[in-house]
Amino acid sequence: MQNSHVNRRNFIKLSAAAGAALALNPTGAQATESVARQTKFQERVLGKTGIKVPILSMGVMRADNPAVVRAAYNSGILLFDTANGYQNGKNEELLGEFFTGKPRNSFVLATKVKENDAARFLEKFEVSMKRLKMDYVDILYIHALSKPEEVTNASILELLLKLKKEGRAKYLGISTHSNEPGVINTMIDNGNYDVVLTSYNYSQTYKKELDAAIDRAAKAGMGVVAMKTMAGGYLDRARTKKVNVKAALKWSLSNPNIHTAIPGFTTFDELEECVAAASDLELTLEEKEFLTAVASCKEGLYCQGCRSCVAQCTQNLPIPEMMRAYMYNYGYKSSLLAKETIMELNLGDNPCGKCRSCNVKCTKGFHVAENISDITRLKRIPDDFLAYA
């Protein structure tokens, strides 16, 4: 693959060639090195884990087509990221089926559990392992933390360290969508975590603080994985203004402290676009113009997760999480994922019903009450009428 141009025929040929390399050399590490050379992906070491990963990995969250996972695997992608709650467990089952029979050292698998009670955390982890059909996962994350005190939850940490000692989770981490600098710095100070999965994109207004935390993490030997690199995928609810995928991904990966990124592609075209971007990180003129144009605009569906809205809300609603669901619905076109996110919050059908007017001022200019009313209506819609992508 040369430069950033990839056409469909070349992409299919590339995937087939990489798959043949795996078939001829199924010994794990050598096989993945062969694939990586085929794709010409740059590789970076995931901190003190010592795992060498291509800069492009796969966020499997919304994927439901094993053929797309196969194409990603055959094109040299090594790390696949899922979670206990994705698609009500079907996401982990998809990967469990796909990786059955494949050399265990030919891929890196990460899953996540969202739970602050150790007993329930272990129950969910056991379910995940059955779905994945694995004896161990390479990375086990506590899912979606935003508060430093959650990072140091003693009972959860004790359980994680036990699972690591038993070899059932090789490395431990945390995923964070908001207050990322605070979470990352607490992880470093705690000293028990190996990897952080953090939101990281061109639209974040606190890049200076986040970059400083990421730099400190990398210097401390922590692996750094980037998510939400596309900042919602679209700049508007009507999906008429698409984020320049290549520009966004290249922007995130241009930071050498970002060891890999996990864009959530669900189609061959989306995978092809990410492969092209990761194969040549030099920005084109068009990509530079996009990044310049959006640098100061307030358009977008991506919530910064600054949490300043929470203190303003008289009902103390989890607004950032609801705005993330809003992004899933309109940016990702994933109504089921949006509904799952809302359902996890255990809110009433009309969370804003007690207020005559909303005084919350969003730093991004979101119409908070309007967006909450819009997204919570999904609770009343049967799952059969919704979709992941």
Q: Helical segment tally?
A: 16
Q: Shape, please?
A: globular
Strand arrangement, largest sheet? 3-4-5-6-7-8-9-10
Mean pLDDT: 89
> Which class of the largest domain in CATH terms?
Alpha Beta
How much β-strand is present in the residues?
A: 5-15%
- Overall helicity: 40-55%
Number of domains: 2
Please give the number of β-strands. Answer: 10
How is the main sheet built? 8 strands, parallel
Q: What do you see in this structure?
A:
- With 389 residues, this protein is an alpha/beta fold.
- The protein folds into 2 domains: 8-292, NADP-dependent oxidoreductase domain (TIM Barrel, Alpha-Beta Barrel); 308-385.
- 43% of the residues lie in helices and 11% in strands.
- The chain contains 16 helices and 10 strands.
- The strands form 2 sheets. It has an 8-stranded parallel sheet, covered by helices on one side. A two-stranded antiparallel sheet has the order 1-2.
- Strand 1 (43-45) and strand 2 (52-54) form a beta hairpin.
- Helix 1 packs antiparallel against helix 2 (29-39) and helix 14 runs antiparallel to helix 15.
- The radius of gyration is 20 Å and the shape is globular.
- The two termini are 29 Å apart.
- Residues 1-6 and 17-37 have low confidence and may be disordered.
